[in-house]
Amino acid sequence: MRTLDEQAHLDFALLLRRRWADMLYPALRGQYEASLGGAPEPAEAKEARPVVHALPAYPWFAWLERNGQKMLWRAVQDSVAARSTEAGVEHGPATLVLDPALEMPAWYTDWDIHIQPGGVWRSDASADTYELGAKLVMLGVNDDYTFHRAFTQTAIPRRSYRAILDLGCGFGKSTWPLKKAYPLAEVIGLDLAAPCLRKARERASAQGLAIEFRQGDCQATGLPGGHFDLVTSTMLIHEMPRPALMATLKESARLLAPGGLLRFLDFTKTGDAFRDLAMIEHGERNNEPFLPGSIAADLPAMCVEAGLVGARWVAFDERGAGRLDELRWPRRAEWHFPWAVLEAEKPA
Description:
The chain folds into two domains: 4-89; 106-345, Rossmann fold. The chain starts with a helix and ends with a strand. A nine-stranded mixed beta sheet has the order 1-4-3-2-5-6-9-7-8. The chain is built from twelve helices and nine strands. It is 44% helix and 16% strand. Helix 5 (124-136) packs across helix 8 (194-206). By secondary structure, it is α/β, with parallel strands linked by helices.
């Protein structure tokens, strides 16, 4: 149970983030549209950048995005530090395989991704911080992981899966729904961060889920080729530099059985210059240095280069509808991520 002060700090940080999304972002967009004076909107984010940067609301928008994120993590860290880490489930059906010899890539360790101090991989406390923060950064709408359930329910074709691999599983929030939806399948969650994997095993065992969590690099997993009918990830590929992303796609293709599916939930370009600029600069302000490159990359073409077929993006509405049938999002005034599903298949 949090103290009144701890809860107040968390509530304030969350409220500030919401007002940034539902008041400041629409205000900035309104100024942008007014500044065009009826002229055609720029076609590309780089063309919109000088226009947006000159707007009166822009300094407030940019400052509050980064510093509101810092404030949120401080509140979360204070809440986690105020109590000892809860006792985990010592026994249960989930298993854990750690690799003490694993050399984590510099692009992963050199940045405090999402501005989380120390990242998610340094200690068990960092995993606790990430678990709580992962709910709050979704503006409180993913407290019961509805978002990840919607991905499993709407973006994963209903069929019999013998083996499923979830890349970048973190503390397991993306892996649990897969095992619940396909209880007879072998389900493996892979991640670099040992503290997150320990948390994932505890949470899965508490739910009675027989998931294997493994520490490993998604560029070279060491898992057998052709073994998996489905390879997934959520919110992973935008955190990788281009060479690591290409290596991950090639590794996914190697791991998939003929006819196996790749389904990655992430972000893509929308074609709205203002919207795309906000997303690119979100990466710059949120310590996600590879996000702009991921947005600019032609991921379907990279899937083809990796040996996959039928590669395409489709839009995803995180409010409950989940996967949509085309790359077009419902019109919304507030800030929201351009969620999309990268779909591809291993040739049969």
